[in-house]
């Protein structure tokens, strides 16, 4: 075990007020492609860039093409995925009374599948869907198994409870996240390059002296961290 991981282990042992903030790198170890890596969705060739497809305008104006992409590239990998070592260890830390909350940019529901209870999903979740006309709720299977554009019994289009491009984040979720981060003893940030705003801006609310960054590659925020570990998040957390 290297020195950084040893230090993290000691910090975790001493604390009962840890908050975890995670991004796509937490889920790539479960086989879910991220958007920005070399072989991520942005690097693949489509008729339109993924960020155009996964936008509010595209959903409303080209619904069929939106759902073709959404079901194949975003839902299908999640339905096959299982929680990995990172998800499992975070759920255990919560059970042990050490971890207060998981704040995630991911929309795959894997933290809950691993057993985490207090999960703040900044970008929503593909697990929940609703009719854009009457608000009736639908499961991910209802959407995935539908032919073409999923329709509600009222005739309205069903849409995922996910924050698309051009849409704002849920301010109630953001306020809760800020509150947890402000009061945290240790803030562990993992599997994110910290480039997606406003989520990445949450780091500035941390007031403690134990900011931990775990990411395979360097991030622009490394210099502000008290502890930096450039390794796979699942491997690191399973050691602590």
Describe the structure.
The chain has 240 residues and is α/β, with parallel strands linked by helices. The chain is 36% helix and 18% strand. It has 2 domains: 145 residues, 3-Layer(aba) Sandwich (Rossmann fold); 85 residues, SIR2/SIRT2 'Small Domain' (2-Layer Sandwich), CATH 3.30.1600. The strands form 2 sheets. It has a 6-stranded parallel β-sheet, with helices on both faces. A 3-stranded antiparallel β-sheet has the order 5-4-6. About 3% of the residues have low confidence.
Write the layout of secondary structure elements.
Elements: H1 3-14, E1 18-22, H2 24-28, H3 50-53, H4 56-61, H5 63-80, H6 85-95, E2 99-104, H7 110-114, E3 119-121, E4 124-131, E5 137-139, H8 140-144, E6 158-162, H9 171-183, E7 186-190, E8 211-214, E9 227-229, H10 233-239
Parallel strand pairs: 1-2, 1-7, 2-3, 7-8, 8-9
Antiparallel strand pairs: 4-5, 4-6
What is this entry, summarized?
36% of the residues lie in helices and 18% in strands. With 240 residues, it is of the alpha/beta class.
Number of domains: 2
Task: Quickly count the helices.
Answer: 10
What is the second-level CATH architecture of the largest domain? 3-Layer(aba) Sandwich
Largest beta-sheet details: 6 strands, parallel
Secondary structure: number of strands: 9
The CATH topology of the largest domain is what?
A: Rossmann fold
Structural class: alpha/beta
Alpha carbon gyration radius: 18 Å
SSE string, helices as H and strands as E:
HEHHHHHEHEEEHEHEEEH
Strand-residue proportion: 15-25%
State the separation between the terminal residues, measured CA to CA. Answer: 10 Å
The amount of helix comes to: 25-40%
In the CATH scheme, the class of the largest domain would be Alpha Beta
């Amino acid at each position: 075990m290297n020195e950084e991981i040893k230090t993290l282990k000691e910090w975790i042992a001493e604390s009962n007020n840890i908050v975890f903030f995670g991004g796509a790198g937490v889920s790539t170890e479960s086989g879910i492609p991220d958007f920005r890596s070399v072989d991520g969705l942005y690097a693949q060739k489509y008729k339109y860039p993924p960020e155009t497809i996964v936008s509010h305008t595209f959903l409303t104006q080209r619904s069929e093409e939106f759902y073709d992409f959404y079901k194949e590239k975003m839902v299908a990998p999640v339905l096959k995925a299982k929680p990995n070592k990172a998800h499992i260890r975070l759920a255990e830390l919560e059970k042990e009374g050490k971890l207060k909350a998981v704040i995630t940019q991911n929309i795959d529901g894997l933290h809950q599948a691993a057993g985490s209870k207090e999960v703040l999903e900044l970008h929503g979740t593909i697990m929940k869907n609703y009719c854009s006309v009457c608000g009736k709720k639908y499961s991910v299977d209802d959407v995935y198994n539908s032919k073409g554009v999923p329709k509600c019994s009222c005739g309205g289009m069903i849409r995922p409870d996910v924050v698309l491009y051009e849409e704002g984040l849920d301010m109630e979720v953001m306020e809760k996240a800020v509150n947890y981060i402000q009061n945290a003893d240790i803030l562990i940030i993992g599997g994110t390059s910290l480039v997606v705003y406003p989520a990445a801006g949450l780091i500035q609310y941390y007031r403690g002296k134990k900011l931990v960054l775990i990411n395979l590659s360097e991030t622009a925020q490394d210099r502000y961290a008290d502890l930096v570990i450039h390794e796979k998040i699942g491997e690191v957390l399973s050691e602590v």
